[in-house]
Amino acid sequence: MDRVAGNWMGQPPVTAQAIQAPCGPAPQLRARLDNARLAGWQRWLQPSLFDILLIAVPFWFFSLAEGGLGLLLADGDTGWHIRTGQWILEQHSFVYRDLFSFTKPGEAWFAWEWLADVWFAFLYQAGGLQAVALFGVVAGVAFCGLVFRHMLWQGANLWIALPLVFLSFGSATLHLLARPHLFTMVLLPAAAWWIEADRRRAGRSVWLLVPLAALWANLHGGWPALIVLLGLTAAGVAAEEAAGARRWWLAGRYGALAGLCLAATLINPYGWQLHGHILHYLQADHIRNLVGEFRAPSFRGEPMLHYELALLAAVAASGVMIARRQFVAPLWILFWAHASLQSARHIPLFVGVAMPFVAAELQRIWDRWASRAGRSSAPALLGGLAGEAAPHLRRMSLLPAVLLLLVALRVVPFTYYSDFPEVRFPSGMVARHESLLAGTRILTQDQWADYLIYRQWPKIKVFFDGRSDFYGVEIAEEYLQAMEGRPGWEKVLEKYRFDTVLLPPNVALASLLKISPNWKLVDDDGQAVLFQKRRPPVRLQETARLHGACANCAARPNEIP
Asked: Per residue in 187-206, is it b (16+ CB within 10 Å) or e — as a string?
């Protein structure tokens, strides 16, 4: 095969023999090759409509949302993820024991997101919290781009895909935080598209999901989502076969793939014990009650309106597909719809999997509408414009990467974060009383404990932080008992010998400590209140005895009184 340049530009192919000819059109052919190479570079340098979309969506969100880019740092868990990654890099070892608490020091701990922690530590060392936040932007853009391109691959035109991707991104921002779950947020829609492409045309590339599962198991605990997706695919394909598709081998193919992916997840520092721990974690009722993102969504706010519209559209699309005896996509949609109604943190996963199929169904409606209305109708004309724009929507240049680099280098004006947002964390209070807090047995809320780990570990150890799977039911209940000021809160404070308390002013315990004779208010800046335990009063007889002992010591310094 001697072809070295194709006719993708509308020109005849150029062969190696023609270039090597001693005379004739060799110079012209070489010039054509140079032009082809230049055109290839121009492809990466010339902005496309897809670039505009990737830039516009996050700009739309972060410019309108209260807090801007700081929303990505709204969760204190990012702090202990960074410190865990730094410890791994410094010690060249996996983490098997607790590093951060005085409650359960040295006890077994599953740092199941260790590889993501290392990545966050690397970003932090390279560019501080700003680099960590920008990675959150990149992950959000990657999620948006994957969902949009999957919609186009499903046949949706621009006028359908564009509003749906805004709907998807708006829903996903509910859980858009700079934490390891960003990897699952991107990998699950990518895996769904990967599997769907294999269903249309089976190939060997789908088996690359096996090493992906191994990588995923070390990045984030959301890797069971891939196993569930493959299991639902096998079940849906079997149902389609029973309905007349007669491709029984596909069900076995995806079942075997699910089994291999599950086996690959055993390649992690904790082996099979990680699987048992995650299963216990997902079934723990006290975690669902304690962690807000594990609770059912509350349909308030703009992101929840986006999610509500997406949910209704996806369920309707599922019914249409089931009527056509298509079962794989409806199983995916209904499973993740149920999961998103059980836990708000599953909303990005639901929209990432479901929206491309909603786009495909809307395109079917569009096509029927255009065919009935005629070629000169508005839907037909708009469809023609979308067809002309399609090549520019499937191409990406270097513009988004260059813009990201300019933001990272602070060439482009952008809000810079050297610390977690002050509106959510007690950065001022901690800075003013850093020496007082060091080495104390401090009680604070879990998010602020994460922040203290970031700011002052190892000078400070915490009672309870965001690692809710580590502390267990008893400590979680004692934590809530103290924070909510339930009867017996004093016993909890005595049991763990707290000498410092740092709380938001609106927490019930803060009000109780203000009137308690055993605690004194050290500082109150309106956002945080700091208390210190008073020393117990010394009785008069004890004072006299101590004074007498001191007098004896002065008279006889070499004797023990």
From this structure: bbbbbbbbbbebbeeeeeeb
H or E element at residue 14: strand 14-15
Residue 388 phi, psi dihedral angles, 5° rounding: -70, -30
Instruction: Tell how strand 529-533 and strand 500-503 pair up.
Output: antiparallel
3-state secondary structure of 2: coil
Output the pTM of the full model: 0.85
Dihedral-angle region of residue 295 (phi above 0 means left; psi in -120 to 50 means alpha; beta otherwise) = beta
Helix, strand, coil percentages (3-state) for the chain, rounded to 5, are 65, 5, 30
Contact call for residues 274 and 220 (beta carbons, < 8 A): no
Read off the tokens for 57: 């969506």
> Residue 549's pLDDT is what?
45
CA distances 186 to 75, 202, 223, 355, 528, Å, are 19, 23, 12, 14, 36
Q: What is the CA 388 to chain-centroid distance, rounded?
A: 35
C-alpha closest to that of 297 among 361, 349, 332:
349
Q: Which helix (H) or strand (E) holds 442?
A: strand 441-444
Cα-based distances in Å from 72 to 97, 136, 173: 28, 6, 9
Of 378, 54, 347, 323, nearest in space to 184 by CA: 347
pLDDT in tens, 260-303: 999 999 999 999 999 998 888 877 776 777 676 777 788 777 78
Token pair belonging to 503: 């709380």
CB distance 245 to 239 below 8 Å = no
Phi/psi at 108 (5° precision): -60, 135
DSSP 501: E
> Which DSSP state fits 264?
H
The answer to whether the CB of 448 falls within 8 A of the CB of 465 is no
Instruction: Enter the tokens of residue 85.
Output: 């990654």
CA atoms within 13 A on the CB side of 391: 2
What strands lie across the sheet with 441-444, from one edge to the other?
Answer: 461-462, 441-444, 500-503, 529-533, 519-524
- The structure tokens 């001697």 sit at 2
Range in 108-122, 123-137, 399-413 the model is least confident about: 399-413
The one-letter amino acid code at 276 reads: G
H or E stretch covering 15 = strand 14-15
- The answer for residues whose C-beta is within 8 angstroms of residue 165's C-beta and 6 or more apart is 53, 57, 144, 147, 148, 151, 355
Alpha-helical regions (H) of 220-327? 224-240, 248-264, 272-283, 285-290, 302-323
Cα–Cα distance for residue pair 530/499, rounded to 1 Å:
11
Distance separating alpha carbons of residues 337 and 357, to the nearest angstrom: 13
Q: Which helix (H) or strand (E) is 461 found in, with range?
A: strand 461-462
In terms of phi and psi (left: phi > 0; alpha: psi -120 to 50; beta: otherwise), the region of 14 is: beta
**How does pLDDT run across 475-526, given as a tens digit for each residue?**
999 999 999 999 999 999 999 999 999 999 999 999 999 999 999 999 999 9
Distance CA 346, CA 301 (A): 17
